[in-house]
Specification:
Layout lengths: L1 H14 L7 E2 L4 E8 L8 E3 L6 E7 L7 E8 L11 H4 E3 L3 E2 L2 E4 L8 E7 L4 E3 L3 E9 L5 E11 L4 E7 L10 E9 L8 H4 E7 L7 E2 L5 E2 L3 E4 L6 E3 L5 E5 L9 E6 L4 E5 L18 E3 L7 H4 L2 E9 L6 E6 L14 E3 L4 E9 L1 E11 L4 E2 L13 E8 L8 E9 L8 E3 L2
Parallel strand pairs: 3-12, 22-24
Antiparallel strand pairs: 1-12, 2-4, 4-9, 5-7, 5-11, 6-10, 8-9, 11-12, 13-14, 14-18, 14-19, 15-16, 15-30, 17-18, 20-28, 21-22, 23-28, 24-27, 25-28, 26-27, 28-29, 30-31, 31-32
Length: 423
């Protein structure tokens, strides 16, 4: 098991170069949230020189104050650090600032301190577009790295068109979805798109789904087109599972029962049964939202509970099963591995999580560290997925890649075409 997850950690490190990823390195830190404005369903993409605000928050599992300091770095299109830039090129103000907004939890069985910060703030603002990495260090603990957050700033200078269909070049309304994409250069003069344009396309903003620099079918002096491109065919998968722990006294959506063991609360989502047919169920594609039944002061009044995940399935050979979602940010991904219970013929995992709404899926992880869809989950063309397209540009003689185009669309089987969302 550890060998498989050593491989998946290596794979995830490589995939971080394809798309932004949030990672917690300190086991005493949990519930890392990264949201632009109030759009918790979309990737962390800000518009340059706009009123957009990036909200970052996390919990340290004690009531002891820690002097956390954050550092911002500009990154290239592949998420390597932009060594050709000075801090003054991309930050107006100061770097290495302390996080001064914190609050101890109130009336919770599990003690924690909630920390949060916003970008921009009165100490620093971002000056250019592109990829950014924010790292939090603990000055009280030898400047140990606590977590990293990766987000993007876009200047929408190129027009990106994105559409999704279940009529693909390998099947019709079966188990896949295919993207077509157009890119209009606008006022840019592109002489060598292979060297000046960098594209990334993802499904539900998952790093492992990234398609990087797919060769366009049509190239002209106005832009690029990707039509009937087999590299832009994705497994449709299935809707995410979901549950909501709003109260500790009784079960809410998706919860079978809640119990108290004398030390902690335990929540049991209904056992996930094999899904042989598609059944529409609106979900959040892996996103999560912290709240309780009062929906007041959620950041520091929500308690932590042990969530017991269960998946009914024959035991699979040659791979592990893991629970996965945007909230699964621990560096040690083995925390999300499920163990097989022979007596109940099901996979099980227990994870400590904060009260709120969670969407999640089950994934397979093989001996090569590659992820997939378990047979129990199904793969249906009707699945509602969100797709993101990121377009980077680097002009002749320029020192860094700029993010000049972004588009997000949602596939819905009840509409004739994808629906644009986000920027």
């Amino acid at each position: 098991m550890k060998t498989i997850f050593t491989l998946i950690l290596t794979l995830c490190a490589e995939l971080c170069q394809a798309n932004g990823r949030n990672t917690i390195y300190d086991t005493n830190v949990k519930t890392l949230q990264v949201v632009v404005n109030k759009d918790w369903l979309s990737p962390a993409v800000m518009e340059l020189k706009s009123s957009d605000v990036l909200h970052i928050s996390f919990d340290e599992m004690s009531h002891d104050y820690h002097r956390f300091v954050y550092k911002i770095e500009h990154c290239e299109a592949d998420w390597s650090v932009s060594d050709g830039l000075f801090e003054s090129d991309y930050i107006e103000g100061f770097n290495n600032n302390p996080i001064e907004d914190y609050q101890n939890s109130i009336n919770t069985t599990v003690l924690y301190t909630h920390y949060k910060l916003d970008i921009p703030n009165d100490k620093c603002r971002l000056k250019i577009s592109g990829n950014y990495r924010l790292t939090v260090y603990d000055e009280d603990n030898d400047n140990r790295k606590v977590l990293t957050v990766e987000f993007m700033v876009v200047e929408s200078d190129m027009n990106v068109g994105l559409a999704v269909t279940s009529n693909t070049d390998i099947d019709l309304n079966e188990s896949h979805q295919q993207l077509s994409m157009t890119l209009n250069y606008g006022e840019f003069s592109i002489t060598n798109p292979t060297e000046q344009i960098h594209t990334v396309i993802t499904q539900n903003n998952r790093p492992e789904s990234a398609r990087i620099n797919v060769k366009p079918n049509i190239v002209n002096n106005k832009g690029l087109q990707w039509n009937h491109n087999k590299q832009l065919i994705f497994d449709a998968g299935n809707e995410y599972h979901k549950f909501e722990v709003l109260a500790l006294s009784h079960p809410t959506m998706g919860i079978d029962r809640i119990s108290w063991d004398g030390h902690n609360y335990n929540a049991y989502p209904f056992v996930a049964e094999p899904r042989k047919n598609y059944l529409y169920d609106e979900d959040a594609n892996g996103a999560f939202y912290i709240r309780n039944s009062d929906n007041i002061e959620n950041d520091y009044t929500c308690d932590y509970v042990y969530v017991h995940y269960r998946l009914r399935s024959p035991e699979l050979t040659g791979c592990n099963i893991a629970v996965n979602g945007q909230w699964a940010t621990d560096e040690d991904q083995s925390a999300y591995v499920m163990q097989y219970d022979q007596a109940n013929a099901e996979y099980q995992a227990t994870i400590l999580q904060k009260q709120g709404y969670y969407s999640y899926r089950f994934i397979t992880v093989d001996s090569n560290g590659m992820t997939g869809i378990p047979p129990t989950e199904g793969n249906f063309y009707q699945t509602e997925n969100r797709y993101q397209a990121y377009v980077y540009y680097k002009g002749t003689g320029e020192r860094t890649w700029r993010l000049v185009g972004y588009r997000q669309v949602e596939f819905r089987s009840d509409t004739p075409s994808a629906v644009s969302v986000g920027l």
